[in-house]
Design goal:
- The chain is α+β, with helices and mostly antiparallel strands and about 200 residues long.
- Helix content is about 25%, strand content about 30%.
- The chain has a 6-stranded mixed beta sheet.
Length: about 200
């Protein structure tokens, strides 16, 4: 199985203070995922206006691009998000979403994939974003517009950048079924929940 690990160090002590792992799911739902999200997500009532967007220059770091797209551009709506994403993606981008068996190759395939997941009411909420000039990892959760108490899907993403353009993305959503945790809990019930 492939995966991604996010490790955060304490700036003063240098010790690890947070770890988040994402592994390739055994069951890949593919396009069924977007159908499920469309059925569940609730579009917010009364759109609020977003502040004017100050466009990010292409010659920036991976972490700056992630922060720009997910903390600034997403507020502007799906049309602006698509336009700015395509502007910052390289022509030969490789995008792996682990809900799918095969990666999306090139801007045309990636754009088609992103349009499939352009679902009113869904908002990706970054939780922790790493530093990095050429690569960046971040954790996130999906707000489906169902209220503060609703369970949110969590995940982890990895972006790689070259010459100010995103060349590679890996998205790993938290699986709904966790076979390793299920097996571990049979062997030792204390292992049922990983913090």
């Amino acid at each position: 199985l492939r995966g991604t690990t996010f490790v955060e160090l304490d700036r003063l002590s240098g010790l690890i203070k947070y770890v988040r792992e994402g592994a390739e799911p055994v069951l890949k739902l593919g396009s069924s995922t977007s159908g499920l999200l469309k059925a569940i997500a609730k579009e917010p009532e009364g759109a609020t206006s977003a502040p004017d967007l100050e466009q990010l220059e292409a010659s920036t770091s991976a972490s700056q691009i992630v922060k720009y797209l997910w903390l600034e551009v997403q507020k502007q709506g799906s049309e602006t998000m698509m336009r700015e994403s395509m502007r910052l993606f390289s022509d030969n981008i490789l995008y792996e979403d682990f809900n799918f068996k095969e990666p999306f190759k090139g801007k045309a395939e990636v754009k088609e994939f992103l349009e499939e997941f352009n679902i009113p009411g869904i908002k990706f909420v970054p939780k922790k974003i790493s530093d990095g000039d050429e690569a960046c990892c971040f954790t996130w959760e999906v707000d489906l517009g169902l209220g503060a108490d609703a369970k949110r899907v969590q995940g982890i993403s990895f972006y790689e950048v070259s010459d100010g353009k995103v060349t590679y993305i890996r998205d790993i959503p938290e699986p709904s079924f966790k076979p390793v945790q299920s097996l571990a809990s049979v062997i030792n019930p204390a292992l049922k929940t990983f913090a």
